[in-house]
């Protein structure tokens, strides 16, 4: 019997979803306030739209960030003459209404407010691409959307109005050329804003003397204006003024001459002092507003994405940059010192009785977790760089512990031999990741009274560092251990606190963890919910903390027993800490629940049938003398039984289902003798889950790959697809083997991608081991040498490290030894033997995709330039393609020509420089720009935001469009409040809403949401992430549907170039993008280029599906129409013949597609015949005209008129004959007599998407569907 979803849980879920929807709708039904703010000094009024649940400080922040009011930062808001508290909510202000007016009241400055004001000015002057001195890498959170579009908003145009094809970004595009890495950063990226001043710096006269502090002096500034004048400025409690000080003379009092100026705002003061500042500041604001709002906002609640290939901006002189720590945190940096643990736990204890309280709580938790992660990353880098002194400096370096910025740091090594029997350092490395996973899981359960530590894992320079918040009292010397639950000393003593056990029981029920008995060293039995290794600790603050959560899931026993040991030339697996993932445990629990419901339903049905049979027998034995009244009563009872629920699953109570997992099963933990039977049963459950992973889940994933339900484009998307289904990465080798054994074309790229991912992960481990312990000066040389051995062996078969003379181990690598090391690592980690020369071949075939994956996995940022991988590549460097920011056809020819000339000169100069600097190797140490920390954090999720999102999707799927849309909009509001605008989860909402509005034919709203999705995915997931790429493809579709095809083609070209860099050519999904490009070009009458892209889409489908598939037949059919529009009827007939033959063979003669292809084939043959005849007629006419001209060449001038008349008469006769032939052909169905416009109208009017336009719509729908699934 096949698995079915049980009815009872579905019904419960539906009720819960409806109730949640009502709660969310009620919470979202609040009206927004449109507040009018009166500016001081007769500055006018501004409008601010805010929610009544927003705090006053949020309204203030909106005013500060507005271009109209950015000059103010130190002010309060007043209502009816009363200043408002910044921390109260807008709706709580007494007497306020949605259209009330507030007054902006200027406040006196404090030192802190003065520092904030100066920082605000520096942020404005730096523009959108402000250099972040605290960033751990180069160019964090980049977005290219405005650059790709060219900062030009195209006016919608009806493409049918074009008489000839306009110039597009694909006009000179070489389909066969590979994307150039030097074009990774689009041309035209504006990094440098308009300069307003030469410099703003802290004066050397700081800090103010004590007697001047009493007069209100806060700090002194020195400004050099664009006019070349140096101005000394005093910041006081009342504002800023130009003082009399010089470099040699100190006098902070206001000047009294013509240069005297003062104002509450430093910006206004500078406008008074420097006319050029006033002019350029307006230009700067215009420059900033040309960018989308989300391109300018800082990323504060998520880890910013760092591009792996960059073209860094030149370093600039800024005398104030070293003083940013003072401007941000003050003289003693007290503002930067935070009690992270107390903040984390206090935010967890916030009330959550209603939706608004939960949203605020989730918002604060996300912000504090993001701040903690940022501080932890910088602290971990300082630990690795040796800038922090260890607490235990006398112990081995692997055992060192550190405290920095109120965060506890330790290294991911087995310094205390805790994992000696499980694999030592390898097991300890895995345990840190699993501990983080356990923290994330428990945070998701969110049990009141149970606390976890803030945890971040950082991999930097080959060392794994674990950062944790500090439990109060953990470092105090106490007589008794503060551990009250679990193993105190790894075995001899086990404790169990009653209250701890009770609270843990709530979490265990949600996580399906079984209570089990363990035996300590003295033979005493103790019941535990968690693993023997997990420790419950009572902090000095009275809170109960759970530590060491790496065993929150059971052991993958099938892998442990079958794949750990060495066999068949495969070495022993490096560790025994092979645990299952939480996603798998949930999948297995749901699988067993479905089976249990079906089993109980069958039992209920069987009992009902037996009862019915018994009642039938009893009725037959009854005496015939029964009274008529009793027989009538029986007849009335029978229908009642028949009216019972027809589906027996309705009677199943899922609360009776009990399945839990013993996390200590198949470990060395001792079990009491009286618990042997329970242990055996629990071990059997764990074994079933392990088999379910190997025999079911992996096969289902391969089925999804075959059906293109999931189609990963790179190793990262493959990893996400596996983790989402609970598959560990150690099964990559098994997936590769199964994909190869299936021999299906749909799994060819999966097989290749799995092997590529194994190679990349092995190279990452090799690099991590090589750079560990290296001096900083040698890291770039080490990485460049390994990359040369991996990717540059064609150019130089024997690369030598630049600093090889220093004798470090990495210098001993050769291309051959590196390939051997990769083969060994793959065999060790993934139990998979790579094909012979695979590493060498993939380094030839996919150089840039392999380089990209290695850089992303190892945290390397390289220079974006065209690397020379082989001796031939220098002479065969492809010509640079047209920039994605090419001017639209409406641009002036002079400007376009000037731009083309500049681009050509730039490219010529680049090639000249490249030739003048011939390299001995592909990579040099100078190409390695920095090494990034790789960060993993236990980020929290908003339950209500996720539930609203899923409820909206469910309503849409059930056909309730209005309800679904309202729920998704409420979900978006919850996401923006909880996560902020710049977060991957918010981008997911933007994308879903854009697709809904697009299908509802509300194109402009769809475009607005889709642009936001593009920017957020670029800045938080990477400019070349698969998510950003698919968002660009969808944005192109939406722009085309809105009549902005030229802009749409820019986005599609940008996405196609990145696709080439990510994967290379031939990915199954790339045919959809090529089809969409071809359809757009066809609508612009660029038929030649459209045919090129249709051809490439056909070639991709042939690679993915083989030479006989309905998808390929569709490609032939569409291509035939494309060639017909082009006027190449001969090729069109060939393509349609192939389509017809393929349809006939695959779907039969009665299928609509076959009949349609047959009609088209007949029409195209007639048209081709007519075209050939017309060509013969025209040729004959030209030959006859030429003969007549030759006969009359020697004639008198007077006879030339009669010759011309004769030629005209002949041509007219031939034209009449051609018309008769055309009419004759038209009677038999030919369309060759139609004009081009009529022919396009005829093709586009064909039903069932038979035209190129219809194919385009189908491609759009397919692309949209695919993006939604991803």
From TrEMBL:
SUPFAM superfamilies the UniProt entry points to: Hypothetical protein c14orf129, hspc210, TPR-like
Feature: compositional bias, Basic and acidic residues: 611-643, 897-910
Record has Disulfide bond as a keyword: no
UniProt KW keywords: Coiled coil, Cytoplasm, RNA-binding
Membrane spanning stretches: none
Gene Ontology molecular function terms on file: mRNA binding
BP terms from Gene Ontology: intracellular distribution of mitochondria; mitochondrion organization
Compartments, record wording: Cytoplasm
Signal peptide: none
Keyword presence, RNA-binding: yes
Annotated ranges, domain Clu: 318-560
Region of interest (Disordered), residue spans: 611-652, 875-919, 1241-1270
Source species, domain of life: Eukaryota
Coiled coil feature spans: 1172-1199
Similarity-based family: Belongs to the CLU family.
PANTHER family documented for this protein: CLUSTERED MITOCHONDRIA PROTEIN HOMOLOG (PTHR12601:SF6), EUKARYOTIC TRANSLATION INITIATION FACTOR 3 SUBUNIT EIF-3 (PTHR12601)
Assembly and oligomerization: May associate with the eukaryotic translation initiation factor 3 (eIF-3) complex.
Described purpose of this protein according to its UniProt entry: mRNA-binding protein involved in proper cytoplasmic distribution of mitochondria.
Protein name: Clustered mitochondria protein homolog
Organism for this UniProt entry: Linnemannia elongata AG-77
Name of the coding gene: CLU1
């Amino acid at each position: 019997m096949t698995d079915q979803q049980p009815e009872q849980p579905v019904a419960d879920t539906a009720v819960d979803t409806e109730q949640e929807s009502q709660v969310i709708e009620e919470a979202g039904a609040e009206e927004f306030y449109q507040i009018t703010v009166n500016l001081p000094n007769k500055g006018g009024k501004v409008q601010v739209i805010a929610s009544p649940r927003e705090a006053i400080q949020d309204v203030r922040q909106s005013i500060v960030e507005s271009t109209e009011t950015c000059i103010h930062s130190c002010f309060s808001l007043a209502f009816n003459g009363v200043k408002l508290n910044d921390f109260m909510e807008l709706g709580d202000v007494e007497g306020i209404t949605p259209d009330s007016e507030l007054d902006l009241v200027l406040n006196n400055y404090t030192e802190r407010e003065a520092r904030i004001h100066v920082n605000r000015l520096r942020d404005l002057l730096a523009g959108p691409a402000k250099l972040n001195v605290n960033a751990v890498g180069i160019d964090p959170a980049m977005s290219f959307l405005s650059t790709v579009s060219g900062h030009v908003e195209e006016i919608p145009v009806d493409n049918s109005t074009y008489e000839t094809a306009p110039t597009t970004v694909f006009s000179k595009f070489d389909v066969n050329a590979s994307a150039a890495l030097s074009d990774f950063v689009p041309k035209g990226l504006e990094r440098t804003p308009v300069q307003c001043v030469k410099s703003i710096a802290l004066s050397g006269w700081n800090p103010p003397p004590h007697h001047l502090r009493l007069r209100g002096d806060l700090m002194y500034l020195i400004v050099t204006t664009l006019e070349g004048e140096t101005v000394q400025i005093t910041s006081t409690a009342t504002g800023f003024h130009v003082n009399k000080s010089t470099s040699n003379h100190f006098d902070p009092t206001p000047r009294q001459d013509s240069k005297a100026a003062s104002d509450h705002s430093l910006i206004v003061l500078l406008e008074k002092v420097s006319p050029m500042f006033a002019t350029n500041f307006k230009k700067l604001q215009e420059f900033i507003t040309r960018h989308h709002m989300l391109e300018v906002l800082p990323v504060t609640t998520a880890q910013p994405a760092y591009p792996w290939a960059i073209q860094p901006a030149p370093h600039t002189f800024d005398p104030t940059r070293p003083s940013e720590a003072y401007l941000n945190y003050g003289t003693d940096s007290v503002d930067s010192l935070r009690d992270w643990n107390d903040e984390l736990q206090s935010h967890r204890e916030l009330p959550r009785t209603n939706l608004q309280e939960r949203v605020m709580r989730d918002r604060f938790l996300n912000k504090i977790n993001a701040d903690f992660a940022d501080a932890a990353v910088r602290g971990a880098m300082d630990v690795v760089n040796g800038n922090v002194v260890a607490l235990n400096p006398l112990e081995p370096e692997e055992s060192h512990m550190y405290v920095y910025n109120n965060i506890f740091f330790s290294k991911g090594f087995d310094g205390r031999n805790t994992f000696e029997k499980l694999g030592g350092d390898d097991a300890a490395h895995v345990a840190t990741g699993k501990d983080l996973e356990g923290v994330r899981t428990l945070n998701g359960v969110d049990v009141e009274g149970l606390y976890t530590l803030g945890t971040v894992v950082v991999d930097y320079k080959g060392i794994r560092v674990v950062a944790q918040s500090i439990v109060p009292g953990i470092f105090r010397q106490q007589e008794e251990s503060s551990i009250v639950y679990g193993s105190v000393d790894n075995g001899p003593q086990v404790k169990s606190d009653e209250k701890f056990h009770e609270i843990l029981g709530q979490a265990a029920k949600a996580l399906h963890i079984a209570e089990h008995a363990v035996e300590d060293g003295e033979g005493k039995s103790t019941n535990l919910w968690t693993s023997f290794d997990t420790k419950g600790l009572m902090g000095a603050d009275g809170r109960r903390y759970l530590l060491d959560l790496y065993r929150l899931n059971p052991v993958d026993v099938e892998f442990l027993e079958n794949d750990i040991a060495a066999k068949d030339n495969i070495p022993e697996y490096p560790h025994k800490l092979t645990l299952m993932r939480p996603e798998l445990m949930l999948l297995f629990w749901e699988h067993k629940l479905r089976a249990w419901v079906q089993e109980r339903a069958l039992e209920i049905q069987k009992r009902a049938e037996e009862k019915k049979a018994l009642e039938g027998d009893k009725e037959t034995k009854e005496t015939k003398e029964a009274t008529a009244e009793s027989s009538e009563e029986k007849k009335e009872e029978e229908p009642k039984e028949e009216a019972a629920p027809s589906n027996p699953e309705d009677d199943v109570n899922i609360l009776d289902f009990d399945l839990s997992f013993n996390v200590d099963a198949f470990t060395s933990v001792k079990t009491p003798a009286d618990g042997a039977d329970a242990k055996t049963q629990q071990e059997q459950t764990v074994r079933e889950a392990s088999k379910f992973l190997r025999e079911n889940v992996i096969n289902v994933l391969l089925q999804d790959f075959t059906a293109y339900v999931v189609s990963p484009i790179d190793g990262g998307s493959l990893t996400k697809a596996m983790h989402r289904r609970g598959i560990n990465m150690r099964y990559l080798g098994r997936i590769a083997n199964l994909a190869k054994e299936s021999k299906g074309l749909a799994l060819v790229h999966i097989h290749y991608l799995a092997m590529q991912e194994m190679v990349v992960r092995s190279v990452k481990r090799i690099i991590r081991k090589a750079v560990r312990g290296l001096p900083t000066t040698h890291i770039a040389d080490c990485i460049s040498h390994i990359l040369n051995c991996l990717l540059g062996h064609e150019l130089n078969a024997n690369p030598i490290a630049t600093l090889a003379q220093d004798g470090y181990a990495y210098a001993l690598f050769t291309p051959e030894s590196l390939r051997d090391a990769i083969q060994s690592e793959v065999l060790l980690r993934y139990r998979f033997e790579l094909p012979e020369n695979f590493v060498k071949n993939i380094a030839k075939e996919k150089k840039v995709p392999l380089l990209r994956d290695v850089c992303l996995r190892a945290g390397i940022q390289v220079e974006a330039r065209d690397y020379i991988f082989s001796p031939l590549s220098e002479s065969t460097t492809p010509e640079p393609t047209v920039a994605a920011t090419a001017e639209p056809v409406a641009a002036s020819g002079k400007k376009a020509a000037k731009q083309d000339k500049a681009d050509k000169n730039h490219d010529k100069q680049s090639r000249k420089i490249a030739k003048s600097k011939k390299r001995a190797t592909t990579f040099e140490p100078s190409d390695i720009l920095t090494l990034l920390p790789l960060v993993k954090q236990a980020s929290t999720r908003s339950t209500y935001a996720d539930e609203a999102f899923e409820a909206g999707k469910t309503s849409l799927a059930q056909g309730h469009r209005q309800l679904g849309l309202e729920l998704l909009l409420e979900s978006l509001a919850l996401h923006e409040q909880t996560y902020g605008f710049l977060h991957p989860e918010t981008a997911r909402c933007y994308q879903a809403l854009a697709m809904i509005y697009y299908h509802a034919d509300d194109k402009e709203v769809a475009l607005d949401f889709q642009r936001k999705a593009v920017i957020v995915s670029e800045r938080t997931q990477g400019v070349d992430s698969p998510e950003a790429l698919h968002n660009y493809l969808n944005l192109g579709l939406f722009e085309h549907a809105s009549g902005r095809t030229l802009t749409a083609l820019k986005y599609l070209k940008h996405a196609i170039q990145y696709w080439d860099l990510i994967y290379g050519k031939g990915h199954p999904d790339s045919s959809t993008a090529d089809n969409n490009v071809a359809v757009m070009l066809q609508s612009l009458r660029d038929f030649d280029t459209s045919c090129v892209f249709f051809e490439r889409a056909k070639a991709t489908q042939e690679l993915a599906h083989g030479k006989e598939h309905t998808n390929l037949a569709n490609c032939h059919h569409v291509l035939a129409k494309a060639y017909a529009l082009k006027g190449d009827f001969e090729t069109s007939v060939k393509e349609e013949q192939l389509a017809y033959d393929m349809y006939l063979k695959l779907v039969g003669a009665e299928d609509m597609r076959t009949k349609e292809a047959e009609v088209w084939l007949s029409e195209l043959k007639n048209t081709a015949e007519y075209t050939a005849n017309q060509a013969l007629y025209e040729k004959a006419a030209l030959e006859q005209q030429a003969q007549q001209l030759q006969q009359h060449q020697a004639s008198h001038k007077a006879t030339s008129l009669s010759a011309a008349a004769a030629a005209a008469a002949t041509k007219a006769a031939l034209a009449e004959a051609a018309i008769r032939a055309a009419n004759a052909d038209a009677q038999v169905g030919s369309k060759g007599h139609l004009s081009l416009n009529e022919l396009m109208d005829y093709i586009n009017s064909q039903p069932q998407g038979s035209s190129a336009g219809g194919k385009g719509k189908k491609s759009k729908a397919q692309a949209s569907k695919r993006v939604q699934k991803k």
